[in-house]
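Hi V.,

Quick status before I head out on leave. The structure for the redesign project is tokenized and pasted below; the design run finished overnight.
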């Protein structure tokens, strides 16, 4: 939501592929590929590295001439280094840790300098998030996390997944703080806010809408303020939320503006990048807008260069013009084409860009994250080829492409729209369960399958089953290429390490590309999906005419015969282990002088079956003779991960003075101690005089 975001599109991010070597295993003894970190990341690491050298040289280094830094240069080194470390933390937290001065080196600096550098902290606060959506180019999308504490907000980054907690939870963060950000090594949950979000996402939502344009767009004003009242509050968007929340949520409010900022817009930006926080606050102050009357602030900047949308996830405490407000804030772009059919999935009914952007961004504002997917190539749920697809549920407005629109059942439950009244929870064998269409909301629209025989894990990683019929705002499912999905059930897995559901593709062999493949994604009549690792099998038995729940809805015209019935059975979970999945690897490709520090880093995942439980992973870095490790993350080279959980590892090492210039082989290995299976990242470090 700032100019940094808009610049991302200009940066050519180059991913290199290198071989990754794994020890032989029963399941995967051929090398897979991994992506190296981007060039920009490596360049930033190099700059930090040089600034560290400059600080060291100025104050104590014996092997370089002592030079006085002017106080201006010293201030500048500290500030530039701080900004670069913030960027490293955002892109790859292990690169942040790798870029820090080793403790022993930092201790040699004057105390006054040390106090301006990074420090170890433990902070208690509330997890908050803002989504920046670029629906056309997902590489530009991001989630910005922050930690709200009593006296300040920190930007928050972490080597452990922050998706593990619902936004709004109180967490304890231990890690390193610098300027206004914290990078977590460890996170622990103090209090999850389940009930709070449900209570805040039902009932009438009072919205303050700010219409803003610019000196160079005022002539293209797309609608009047009076018209805005109708196109927002009496719209398809409003009808969609009434239908999908089963009349539990509605939006009402006031439109303020237009306000014309006396400047032009020169760069493309997604949403909030176009208008600064200061400009928004000035508009609110100058026009005496009383935000205390509202639950939600919706900023709508109109300019051809302002596209897509952004939003906070849920409400948060904001200081606006010196006053504290507990509200959500969302931004909507593409206003110049507001009434065009949605760029992100046309529907067989009126559905405009504005309807889509309002639905997605106010979905975030109510408290949900994206509807994702899990692509395991020829497998459904396990294997070294799996990767998470952000926005990967195309059958959900919180995903991408809008094959259909209703939010998935997990997110509806999160928002308090699905409760135990319209869902069924399963934890033992059952047959003949009927699932009613998600768009209708009568009967049972969700079957939630808990893990059985594992009492400590019953709440972790359940399966969510739903049935979609081509009615109401899901009626795009009539399209011939999506219609097979009406023959069965959608299965979302809730990962053990995340609160964002992942749609599974029940026909994984039919296409190479995820979004094409999931055109037929459901488990259909006569089919069974078996998760050996969780010890669960799900079968779709076909229709029934002896329905135990009955619905009659003339508008939706659902015939009871079309609903699928399912059978769930449990068995002892099996354990198969795989080599750790390496998602990214990272080392400097620039030259490092002898007498200095290099680093190597990996991001890896426990790819074992869910039934194996957590395993310990040992990280080992192979260095040339005489080189020594100066610091590592994790500190003791040991980390414990649940199946499907991910972690970073990084090692900084010292290259002795007098090392002959040339290329040196360095390798990082990660070993699952439960299986002995190893993945490694071999590379060369280039040493100069
Ligand atoms: Zn989003």
């Amino acid at each position: 939501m700032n100019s940094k975001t808009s610049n991302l599109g200009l940066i050519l991010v180059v991913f290199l592929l290198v071989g990754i070597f794994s020890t032989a295993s029963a399941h995967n003894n051929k090398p897979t590929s991994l992506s190296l970190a981007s060039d920009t990341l490596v360049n930033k690491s190099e700059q930090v590295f040089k600034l560290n050298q400059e600080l060291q040289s100025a104050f104590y280094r014996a092997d370089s001439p002592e030079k006085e830094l002017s106080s201006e240069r010293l201030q500048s080194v500290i500030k530039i280094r701080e900004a670069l470390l913030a960027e490293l933390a955002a892109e790859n937290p292990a690169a942040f840790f790798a870029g820090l001065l080793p403790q022993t080196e930092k201790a040699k600096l004057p105390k006054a300098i040390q106090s301006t550098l990074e420090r170890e902290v433990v902070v208690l606060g509330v997890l908050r998030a803002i989504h920046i959506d670029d629906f056309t180019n997902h590489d530009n999308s991001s989630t910005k996390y922050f930690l709200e504490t009593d006296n300040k907000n920190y930007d928050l980054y972490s080597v452990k997944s922050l998706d593990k907690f619902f936004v709004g939870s109180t967490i304890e963060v231990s890690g390193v703080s610098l300027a206004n950000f914290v990078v977590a090594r460890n996170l622990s949950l103090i209090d999850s806010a389940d009930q709070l979000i449900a209570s805040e996402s039902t009932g009438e939502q009072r919205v303050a809408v700010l219409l803003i344009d610019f000196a160079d767009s005022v002539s293209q004003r797309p609608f009047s303020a009076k018209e805005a009242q109708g196109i927002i509050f009496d719209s398809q968007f409003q009808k969609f939320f009434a239908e999908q929340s089963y009349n539990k949520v509605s939006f009402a409010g006031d439109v303020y503006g237009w306000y014309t900022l006396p400047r032009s817009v020169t760069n493309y930006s997604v949403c909030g990048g176009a208008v600064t926080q200061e400009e928004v606050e000035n508009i609110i102050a100058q026009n005496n807008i009383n935000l205390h009357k509202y639950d939600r602030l919706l900023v709508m900047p109109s300019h051809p260069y302002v596209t897509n949308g952004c939003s906070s996830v849920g409400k948060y405490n904001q200081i606006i013009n010196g006053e504290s407000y507990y509200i959500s804030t969302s931004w909507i772009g593409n206003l110049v084409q507001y009434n065009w059919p949605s760029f992100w999935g046309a529907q067989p009914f009126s559905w405009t860009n504005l309807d889509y952007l309002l639905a997605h961004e106010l979905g975030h504002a109510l408290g949900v994250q994206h509807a994702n997917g899990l692509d395991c190539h020829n497998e459904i749920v396990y294997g070294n080829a799996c990767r998470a697809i952000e926005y990967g549920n195309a059958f959900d407005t919180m995903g991408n492409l809008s094959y259909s629109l209703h939010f998935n059942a997990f997110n509806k439950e999160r928002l308090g729209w699905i409760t135990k009244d319209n869902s069924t929870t399963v934890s033992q064998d059952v047959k003949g369960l009927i699932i009613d269409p998600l768009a209708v909301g009568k009967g049972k629209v969700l079957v939630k399958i808990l893990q059985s025989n594992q009492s400590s894990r019953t709440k972790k990683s359940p399966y969510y089953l739903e049935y979609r019929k081509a009615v109401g705002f899901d009626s795009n499912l009539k399209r011939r290429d999506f219609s097979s999905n009406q023959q069965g059930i959608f299965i979302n897995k809730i990962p053990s390490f995340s609160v964002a559901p992942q749609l599974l593709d029940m026909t994984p062999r039919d296409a190479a590309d995820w979004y094409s493949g999931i055109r037929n994604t459901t488990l259909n009549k006569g089919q069974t999906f078996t998760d050996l690792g969780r010890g669960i099998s799900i079968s779709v038995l076909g229709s029934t005419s002896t329905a135990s729940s009955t619905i009659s809805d003339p508008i939706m015209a659902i015939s009871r015969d079309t609903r699928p019935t399912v059978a769930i059975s449990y068995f002892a979970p099996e354990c198969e282990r795989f080599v750790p999945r390496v998602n990214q690897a990272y080392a400097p490709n620039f030259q490092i002088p002898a007498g200095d520090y290099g680093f190597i880093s990996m991001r890896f995942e426990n790819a074992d079956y869910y039934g194996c439980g957590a395993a310990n992973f040992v990280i080992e870095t192979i260095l040339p003779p005489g080189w020594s490790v100066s610091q590592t993350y994790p500190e003791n080279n040991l980390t414990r991960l649940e199946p499907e959980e991910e972690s970073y590892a990084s090692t900084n090492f010292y290259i002795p003075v007098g090392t002959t210039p040339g290329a040196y082989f360095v390798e990082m290995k990660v070993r699952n101690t439960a299986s002995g299976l190893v993945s490694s990242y071999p590379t060369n470090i280039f040493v100069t005089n």
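Above is the designed sequence. The chain has four domains: 8-20+32-191, 197-366, 372-570, 581-688.

G. will cover questions while I'm gone.

Best,
W.
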